[in-house]
Amino acid sequence: MIDSMTHRKLSQTTQRPSPTRQLHGTANTTLATWRTHILGSRILSISALMLAMASTATWASDVKSQQTQAADIASNIANNTDTCYVEGVSDRLNCGFVTVPENPNKPDGKQIQVHYVVLPAVKNVNHEEALLAIAGGPGQSAIDNAAGFDAMLSKVRQQRDILLIDQRGTGRSNLLTCDEGAQSPLSFDDDNADTLAETQKCLAKIDADVTQYGSLNAIKDFEAVRQHLGYKKLHVYGISYGTRMAQLYMRLYPAHLATVTLDGIVPMQQSVLEIGASIDRGFDLLFKDCQETAACHTQFPELKAEFDQVAASLAKAPVMENVYDPVTGEKTMLTMTRGKFYGSIRMALYQANVRALVPHAIHQAAKHNFQPILGLYSLTIDNAGMAMGMHASVVCGEDMHRITPAMREQAQHSFMGKTMLEGLEATCEVWKVPAVDDSFSEPISSDIPTLLLSGEIDPATPPSWGELAMEKLTNAKHFVAPYATHGVAYQSCANNLIADLVRSGSVKDLDGECLKKDVRRSFYLNASSVEPLDATSTKTTTTDDNASTGAKE
């Protein structure tokens, strides 16, 4: 599953490019959408993972000093950045980079650029603080997800800058990825890919010391950007893997953080490789929801059995047939493997509106019609911009060594867990990233005001992971949104809670009651409607009859 990142360059001209569709994801695509090629979906089905303003009194005698400090910070940003535009955001932004050693222990060695973008506050009232939004993956570009962050954090941006940093190895910051090759992802047989050989080819093409692209070095880069821009305090929002980065910031630089929001939480104590069980839980919740929804259960009474039937058939041999490429419209060969089948459904579970399509797609696949599954799979082809070289550097150094015999045993009973583990073991054998110290996995102990957000039907980071992260947080609240998937702030009132946290600098008065609003999407019962075909036909007939007799609605 290596995802080649579409490297979108920042336009540094005064001409604004036409807006085009932006992958915003981190909520919708942080979920990492994988392309089945180099390193294969066999590896990176792994992760969508696979993330206050302190209240102080203002004394009259301090006003001039604070105004001077604010002016200095604004001047610092102006002097250290250029103006630019990014896809999906109409405003002119500030962009720049800091130069840091690739290996912090060799300050005179190879240097790399870590790029950032600042979305300036609308009202520009607090130059000393910004909100740092950290993308997921690991491997997503925060800058490429600027449109999604801007929309979700619109209320925060009224009074705070939004800071986006392409973490080392992603986006514009010495991107670690490999070419996809000439073969179409539709025809690629990922179930029989030689992961070891593909990984070796990938590493041979990367001009970098891949051992230096883990989270600990990256958090030092983030702090270097903060110092470079002159912000005194940061509010931090992390989603999915970005929550790990946010927690490391809490551990290493607590004095510079005002508040923290963790959305789709990966606790420090948890290896991301345990996501296999979370994926299985997401599938089970889908089947349960359909069974407990009258219309869905009536239309698809044997949904789980049909899913098992298709998976068993594809395990014997892939389905090969000519189809029209859903992206290009050209005729091409589709090789529908068990990996693609599972992966398409898995990624559909990240978004409530796409999740609603899954029962129909499974039912049609059981009838040997893979067109609906192909539609879901096409959403993963237009990938989330994952830098899979960086992804491997993080997971191989921070997670592989934490695999226990019990985890291995559990993985053997899960197709997703087993294939992820096997693929990553092959990758890490080539990547050879030293394991982090055991202290890396200790829970975060902090009194920084912290909001934790979990979606009950999240197929990647379940609410139990949020509870684990709460272990030593003494000034935190954990809210579970009952109808949310991955990225609660993108699909509920949680973005307003984040704005309240930033404004007040406190979790004390945060109330998660609004998260209980039922925002579920009705399951599609056919290709175009959430209503049975006979009901749809009846309505159409009635409308036609009324029209023919001159009757009016």
Tell me what the structure shows.
By secondary structure, the protein is α/β, with parallel strands linked by helices. It is built from 21 helices and 11 strands. The protein has helices at residues 25-28, 40-44, 63-80, 146-152, 154-157, 195-205, 215-229, 241-252, 275-292, 294-299, 303-316, 338-348, 352-355, 358-366, 371-381, 388-398, 405-411, 415-431, 463-469, 494-504, 533-549, and strands spanning 82-84, 93-101, 111-119, 129-134, 161-165, 233-239, 257-263, 319-324, 331-336, 450-455, 476-481. The protein has a 9-stranded mixed β-sheet with strand order 1-2-3-5-4-6-7-10-11, with helices on both faces. It has a two-stranded antiparallel sheet with strand order 8-9. The longest helix has 18 residues, at 63-80. The chain starts with 24 loop residues before the first helix and ends with a helix. The relative contact order is 0.16.
Count of beta strands = 11
Q: Count of helices?
A: 21
Percent of residues in beta strands? Answer: 5-15%
Identify the overall geometry.
globular
Largest sheet: 9 strands, mixed
**Over the alpha carbons, how many angstroms does the gyration radius reach?**
24 Å
Distance between the termini: 53 Å
Query: What is the SS-derived class?
Result: alpha/beta
Q: Stretches where pLDDT falls below 50 for ≥5 residues?
A: 1-70, 535-553
Give the mean pLDDT: 83
Roughly what percent helix? 25-40%
The largest beta-sheet arranges its strands as 1-2-3-5-4-6-7-10-11
